[in-house]
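Thread title: Can someone regenerate the structure for this chain?

I was given the following input by a collaborator and told the matching structure tokens would be attached. They weren't. Posting the sequence so someone can regenerate them.
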Amino acid sequence: MSKRILLVSAALVAMLTASPLRADTLSEALAAAYANNPTLNAQRAATRAVDEEVPQALSGYRPSINAFANLGASNSRGFEQRSASAGITITQPIFSGFRTVNGTKAAEASVKASRESLRNTEQNTLLDAVEAYMNVVRDGAILSLLRENVSFLEEQVRASRDRFQVGEGTRTDVAQSEARLASASADVSAALANLESSRGVYIQVIGRAPKNLKPAKAVDKLLPRSLDAAIGASRTDHPAILAAVYNADTASFNVKIIEGELLPSVSLEATAQRDWEDGFQASTGNSAQVFGRLSIPIYEGGQVYSRVRQAKETLGQRKIEIDSARDQVQAALVGAWSGLESARSQSVAARSQVEAARLALEGVVEEQRVGQRTTLDVLNAQAEVISARITQVQAERDQVVASYSVLASIGRLSSQSLGLQVATYKPEAHYQQVRDKWIGLRTPDGR
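Best answer:
Regenerated them for you:
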């Protein structure tokens, strides 16, 4: 007896000290997607590439330095002469028709547009992660419900067979129960396939396999109280609109850059040179010169004028795209807001439906025991319960996803607003590292 007590005590200690199975929360999944999603990381790299347009534009203020060397030989009337020279030339731009100024402003506007595009990609990635997470939760819950249904129907098949054996039921009751069981088993197989598909998308978006996902809640506290307030916030915060505005700024500066090609340009050029000669009239000497260069364009065949007109048409296009972006954002926001309200209503209705269906099933089962209901009545009542519970699961999933969709449609779905435990990517850091670099082939991270 004492040995048995010791074994039981050891089992209890093991149960108490064992670590619980790790469960992922939605916040943890979003943090993983924010850090690891390849699409998001690719957009970050694209933003860093756009940062380099600013030092390229600033190079118009800086001098250019070139070294040169010449080596030659000649023969005239039997006299051979060899010569060589080497030197260095420094050219400093003084005035370039304001092209450097406007080029720098255009590059900075492109950087801002790229940052907004990155922020939009971050929003889309986080929203995809929410959908992937909730789809796994939904499909896992539906699979559990359908397996419970199979267990219930297996018991109904057994009970109908027993009643048939004692003469209290009919072969029809048995056949109906078996048919429902076969259909339920097929539903389980389909639900399992759906779950595996959702798990695959989860891994693709978030970067790791789902483990014991916990149910999530909607982010209603982060949303405006009315649709009008949400629309107003989206017009000032949504990255798609802001990116369109900055793209229009870039196009405006591009017009000025091309127009600058029609203006005079001034530069200062200095050359230092050493010459070597031998043979006839051999001589060696050094020379240096400094001179200013003024270039005034007169006519270049009409190409620049055409490019100016083309740039103005592009500017008009970019301005129209601002209005288009506002319309698209508003349409998406209205749709997401309507979807959220619908999901809330469906969730409330589904809970009531589930409770009513359960009570109805309990009543039908009791009435069957006293002969007032048939097996088919029980099977139909059970089907209504399963259908109602699946509707509830879907509505709860839709409510969570719709709330995040509204947050994204406003332009406020970010790691900071969600309070994710992950290092926030700051594109400004790379911009400051490369903006004033005069030389160097390595990127700030050492590549």
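The first helix runs from residue 2 to 17.
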